[in-house]
Structure formats: structure tokens, C-alpha cells
Amino acid sequence: MANKAFITPKVLKWARESARITEETAAAKISVKVEKYLEWEAGISKPTIKQAQSLAKIFKRPFALFFLPEIPHDFQPLQDFRKSGSKKLTTSSIFIIREIQQKQAWIREINEENKEEKLSFVGRFTINDTPQKVAKDILSTLNINPAGYLLENPLKEWITAAEKKGIYISRTSFIHARLKIDSDELKGFAIADPYAPFIFINSEDWNAPQLFTLVHEIAHIWIAQTGISNEVEPTLKNINQFHPVEVFCNEVAAHALMPHEILVGNETSAYQSSKDIFKIANQLGVSTFALLIRALQLNLISTQTYQKLKKQADNDFADYLLKEADKKLLKKEKGITSGPNYFLLQLNRNSRLFTQTVLDAFRGGFIEATLASTLLNVQVNKFNKLESQLIK
What we know:
Blueprint: H1 9-18, H2 23-29, H3 34-42, H4 49-59, H5 91-113, H6 131-142, H7 154-164, E1 168-172, E2 174-176, E3 179-180, E4 188-191, E5 198-202, H8 207-222, E6 227-229, H9 244-257, H10 260-264, H11 274-284, H12 288-297, H13 303-333, H14 342-350, H15 352-363, H16 369-376, H17 383-390
Parallel strand pairs: 1-5
Antiparallel strand pairs: 2-3, 4-5, 4-6
Helix pairs in contact: 2-3, 6-9, 7-8, 8-9, 11-12, 12-13, 14-15, 14-17, 15-16
């Protein structure tokens, strides 16, 4: 009996359900029959301490939480701005949202306790302002000029500029190797807090869609609308399926990334071939699809030209995906299995600004090693390797 964990059954059930994990899956992960697991949730029997610890890891909850007499107050769910008809958030999305909420809550408390000033741009505008006005203010505040990016990678430039202003940017596409975050389900979300605004971007997409998502989420912060998104690039179809806030933030992103004065400054002939469209899109860091829609909306191309170039772009993108698949297959055949640097992945997932803040607090003796390790998801003896990625 000494080995039994006297957990609270209803808390165990709440932890599983809030992780969107079925009884069958939970039982399978710790190698017990589902009937035995159901006994634990019903209070008929108790798991061992080792089994309960394993469940805590699976549900991404502190082990001690299972022993609380009542279900604890959890983080409030973020407002769902996703397209109508979107599928229910699954475990991976729930886990990354909870992880970012925990990081954001910690940094907010620190900033508030230190009497840091509220960031003036959070909620500076509302949905009643014009998207163009909001876009101009974003560019001005972050000191970004889409006509001439300073870095070769516009996405990196936007992230760097945003974090310099106190916006934490997290990017990842997985919880762990077997739990990926589906971009159709969740492309990004924003927590529009004046003390610690936090943005998450699903890095499953390539850089151009990620950049549009990032600026879309920045727009959420400028109008103080906390929530999640799943389809963000401009669209011409089924506009009524999108939440008004999403439509507004899409327009803000389009104005910020593809300003009217830049596009109309090009010769009309610049929008007549897929090759030229790709060149301009690449310079602006956006997708050819986003640029085509923007050009159509600005009457720089006709509907006929749009349809022709859209078809060409679809074919070009299909060819690109085939080439990428061939590259992966070739690497596999040659036995090349090297992947991205683990510490770089963790740095991007935590946010560079957040990582630096936690490391500074740890080095300064303001927080314990256990808390720092938990916040960064990196062992303390590996902090030097994580820190080395900050200067690259």
C-alpha cells in the first residue's frame, strides 16, 4: 500500500480531459488495461506512485496537482478566432497554448512586480480604425521598412524588431517528436497583455506564411485581441466564414507587408508573369498567393491575369513540394539523418527574449535552478549550450 499514490480521482479525470486524451490512450501509454485506468478515475483503486508520475508527464501537469482535494483553476481558454467549422483543438495545440500561457504568466508577474511600464502599443487601436493606419503604426513602432529589409531573412528581421520592443515570439511545430502541431488546426495565437505580450507561430509552414502569421498576430496585439488563429493569409472566397477580427488583422498584415506605395510604384508589366511575381514576393518576404491577391485588390492586375498567374503559382508550388520530397528521400537513402540543433529549436520555442530574461534571472540568483530549467525545458548543465545560440 505504501507504493500507492492517493490521488484525487476527479482531478485525475480533469487533467486527462483538459489534455484532450482519451481513457484508452492514457491507459495504453502506461501499459495498463483501460478498465484498470477507469478504476483510478472512479476512485475504486489507486495507481502506483510511478504510474501517477508517468500520467503527470503525459498530461503535462505537476505531479503534486493530482493530490489537490478539488479541481484547480486552470488558465482561461483563449478566444477562438479560427475559421468557422475548424476542428476541435487536439492535445498538441492544448499543450503549446498552456505552455505559452505559463511562460507569459511568469514574465508578466515579474514585469509587474518590477513596476515596468505598460507597453503603449498594446491596444493602441481598435477594429474600428483603418487597417492601413494600424499597419503604418506597426511599421513605425518596430522601425521596419518593407521596401528594403536590412536582413536577408524578413521573418528574422520582424522577430528581432518585435522582441526589441518587448514582444515575446515563440516558434515551433511540435511538442515532442511524436506530437506535432497541425498548422491547419493552429497557425498562431497572441496574448495581448500590456506587461508581457506573447505571440506563438507554428513553424510547420515555410517562412513566407510564418511571416504573414506573425504580422497578423502583431495586429492582434495592437488592437488588444487575445486569441488563436488557423487561416490568416488573404483570401477571396468564403470571407463570411472568418471572424471580423481575423479579417481586420489579415488586412493589417497585407498593408504592413505589401504597402500600397511599394506595389503601385512598380511598372504594370512587373505583374504579368509568375517569374516576376515570385521575384517581388521574395523581396517582400510574402507568398506569391498573398501578393497576387493584394495586386488584384489594388487593381494592378485583372481578374483574368490573376487566375492565370494563380494557376501558374499553384503548379510552381506543386513542383517545389515534389523537389523538396525528392531531397528528403535522397538524404534518407544516403543515410543523412542530421536534424536541426536541439538548443536552437528550444531557443525558438521559448522565444529569444524570454530565454535571455530567464537566464539573466538565474545567473543573478533571482530564481532557482529548478524553475529556470522548467521554464526553458533545458537541463541546467546544458544552459551554456542554449546560451551560445543567443549570440548567433
